[in-house]
Design a protein that fits this description.
seven-stranded mixed β-sheet, 477 residues, Aldehyde Dehydrogenase, Chain A, domain 2, globular, 23 strands, alpha/beta, 40% helix, Aldehyde Dehydrogenase, Chain A, domain 1, 24% strand
Length: 477
């Protein structure tokens, strides 16, 4: 059965369908999904525009009930939905279920936020005049999400958009439509009025472009590549719409001489290789001071030997396959580039054979890298990391900040002085001390600096900055 697009409250078939393939077993078709046309996208935008007046004035209890019902169903079905996620994206079953739980928690959080909508009442500088400051929904919100977190990222965009009274046109990554379709189906059955949430699956060049071209989309939130993010920005400026961008990362993880070696290695392996390195918060630059460098590299090699790379659904798997052939080719290309640049491939980087045909890659660790190499400057988005030797903390901080990106940054140290200084001076939106650089809670702000992000933060109460607009009203007493 072909899963359809949702437009104006109706499930609509596309002119063609595309197949969702399991990267752990390319013989396994996860499902078939309808591909929307540009005309379908325009119809979805029109439906969202028509639904906005009523939804933007809907009661907070109605919104709360729908989001809470959605959260409850996601959490009740976490094993089923987590397995679907792992089948289509390739992250391990434990990671897939964990991401699904996070999506449920996000909807639960914003169900609560519906009941906490607040403003301010202030006295005017003029006598006998009152001032009210309130937040109102922006309008029609376009949501474009990537393939690496196919349920969590849609959740943290859709939930606040609906919570604050906006209507939505949602285009998920074509590579992983299953999780997105499931979350839309749950919301639809939870009682959303027609047109409030519209799902248009398909090609970015068709559906995404129709969204960018429309003057009836009032805000766009995008997570994906830097190049596409720039296109979203340019198109949004032309239409004078709000836009929010989450793009690339080249995140550093600093290891100082005084670090607990076991803590440093575990954090580095998790940061660099878990979720197959396919996280914008992954650390692909391991910046290590010379006093611990050799011990750290040796310990990393030993730890990497024990990593289990296999089918995402198989018990005991720690790292699943790369998401598809194109991404696998990109990863292996960068491994070749690293060698050409003079870095030493100290461990891994080999294609692996498993019981089922899939895109299996042994995590790769380079040593003798410099921060000027392409493998240290460009986002690889795979299980490839480079060790950069530095003299001391000061040089480590300088190298860590020497990047066009600024999403996440980490340090392993037992020094309170260095940890405190690093938190203050790391040029990143998120900083981790003795923890992996990937992994943030659902109720706190997510986002970066420099080339990694543009606009206000996602998640938590900070989401209101993007999904609402501020109104100041005066009343003569």
């Amino acid at each position: 059965m072909v899963q359809k697009n949702l437009i104006d409250g109706e499930w609509i078939a596309g002119s063609e369908a595309f197949r969702n393939i399991n990267p752990s077993d390319t013989n396994d078709v996860v499902g078939e999904y309808a591909r929307a046309s540009a005309e379908d996208a325009r119809a979805a935008i029109a439906a969202a525009k028509a639904a906005f007046p009523a939804w933007s004035r809907s009661g907070i209890l109605e919104r709360h009930a729908i989001l809470r019902k959605t959260a409850d169903e996601i959490l009740a079905r976490k094993d089923e939905l987590g397995k679907l996620l792992s089948r289509e994206e390739g992250k391990t079953l434990a990671e897939g279920i964990g991401e699904t739980v996070r999506a449920g928690q996000i909807f639960d959080f914003f169900a609560g936020e519906c009941l906490r909508l607040a403003g301010e009442v202030l006295p005017s500088a003029r006598p006998n005049i009152g001032v009210e400051i309130t937040r109102e929904p922006v309008g029609v919100v376009g949501i474009i999400t990537p393939w690496n977190f196919p349920i969590a990222i849609p959740a943290w965009k859709i939930a606040p958009a609906l919570c604050y009274g906006n209507t939505v046109v949602f285009k998920p990554a074509e590579l992983v439509p299953g999780s997105s379709w499931a979350i839309v189906d749950i919301l639809h059955r939870a009682g959303l009025p027609k047109g409030v949430l519209n799902l248009v699956m398909g090609k970015g060049s068709v559906v995404g472009q129709a969204m960018l071209d429309s003057p009836d989309i009032h805000a766009i939130t995008f997570t994906g590549s830097t190049g596409t993010g720039k296109r979203v920005a340019l198109a949004s400026v032309e239409h004078n719409r709000k836009y929010q961008l989450e793009m690339g990362g080249k995140n550093p993880f600093v290891v100082l001489d005084d670090a607990d070696l076991n803590v440093a290695v575990e954090a580095a392996v998790n940061s660099a290789f878990f979720s197959t390195g396919q996280r914008c918060t992954a650390s692909s630059r391991l910046i290590v001071t010379e006093g611990i460098h050799d011990r750290f590299v040796a310990a990393m090699g030993e730890r990497m030997k024990g990593l289990v790379i296999d089918d995402a659904l198989k018990a005991g798997t720690q790292i699943g396959p790369v998401v598809d052939e194109s991404q696998l080719n990109q990863d292996t290309d960068y491994i070749a580039i690293g060698r050409q640049e003079g870095a030493k491939l100290a461990f891994g980087g080999e294609l692996l054979k498993r019981d089922t045909p899939g895109f299996y890659l042994q995590p790769a660790l380079f040593t003798e890298a410099t921060n000027a190499m392409r493998i240290s400057r460009e986002e690889i988005f795979g299980p490839v990391a480079s060790v950069i030797r530095v003299k001391d903390y000061d040089e480590a901080l300088t190298v860590a900040n020497d990047t066009p990106f600024g999403l996440s940054s980490g340090i392993a140290t037992t020094s309170l002085k260095h940890a405190t200084h690093f938190k203050r001076n790391a040029e990143a939106g998120m900083v981790m001390v003795n923890l992996p650089t990937a992994g943030v809670d659902f109720h706190v702000p997510f986002g970066g600096r420099k080339g990694s992000s543009h606009g206000s933060r996602e998640q938590g109460r900070y989401a209101a900055e993007f999904y609402t607009t501020v109104k100041t009203a005066y009343t003569l007493a």
